[in-house]
Amino acid sequence: MSAIAMKKGIIFFIAAFLATCVPAKDAGVAPASGPDGLKAEMPDAGEGPGPTSPAAVEDIMNYLASDELKGRDTGSEGIELAAQYIEEYFQRHGIAPYYPGYRDTLSNFKKPAYNVVGWLEGNDPDLKGEYILLGAHYDHIGTIRPLNGDYIANGANDNASGTTAVMEIAKHFGRKKSNKRSLIFALFSGEERGLLGSKHMAKNMKASEVNLYTMLNFEMIGVPLRSKNYDLFVTGYYKSNLAEVSNKYAGENFIGYSATAREYNLFQRSDNYPFYQAFGIPSHTYCTFDFTNFAYYHKVDDEVAQLDLEHMARLINKMIPMVEGIANSPVQEVKMN
Ligand SMILES: [Zn+2]
User: Fold this and answer.
1) Ligand 1 centre distance from Cα of residue 192 (Å)
2) How close is the Cα of 18 to the center of ligand 1, in Å?
3) Domains in the chain: boundaries
4) Average pLDDT, integer, range 288-292
């Protein structure tokens, strides 16, 4: 990894965990026809609306973190399979393509690489003009030095777990259409290569003057925090009142403050940051990895078997009313401090 890692073991985790940046080349303005893009097919009959389950989470996790996808390195065949899977999933659950298609080709990577982006128009004539972006990176680091013959970094926690949260939240709203503000669901590529996908998209959304209200990013939520009186922390806790508003709609102390996240400035090291830089809006990462509760970061053993799927389903089910509250409040409550 990097020289930084020599300084503090834990920094090694951080530096690897949240990729350092490579300046993104501007690829020009995103096609302005997102919202007028193709309308997706309606969900299958008989599949009820509503929250997720450990079984539904397991389905997605087992595919995204399977050996077949070979650790989903940016620009690889494995991540191409992941992209197709996410597109089909959005299609099946009533999430329309944000661009003419779901694919947003990165301008800042040497090989063809894609963010996969869908959206759901708000049901309120006024508030639908405001957008909330829910994001997570679906890429990982691919194959690495073998350990006991295993050379695939499956990236179950990093970040198939965050990807699953965005997909299951999208599924819920795709069926219920209970969101007054419009929701954009973005799965980023290139995060491990320097936040490339989110930088590319943030720049283009800014150029397209999208009326972005807030950005909610999900990263490494596969195992529960230990001995905390909250379930998730947000990075950049003091930058806005997102934690407070989130807890109001979660109806409990769901989101808390992490001294570790602050100490290592995680706010700047995940896909929320390019949107904060471009728009100056509340843009944070929700996470449950604090370097003490998961030993397989960027290792071949970051596998579904190491995760707690009940915990993940419980978290996602609590996130849904939280997102719904933020999407439906008559005025914008989430504000920068
Ligand atoms: Zn990650």
Assistant:
1) 7
2) 6
3) 3-21+33-328
4) 96
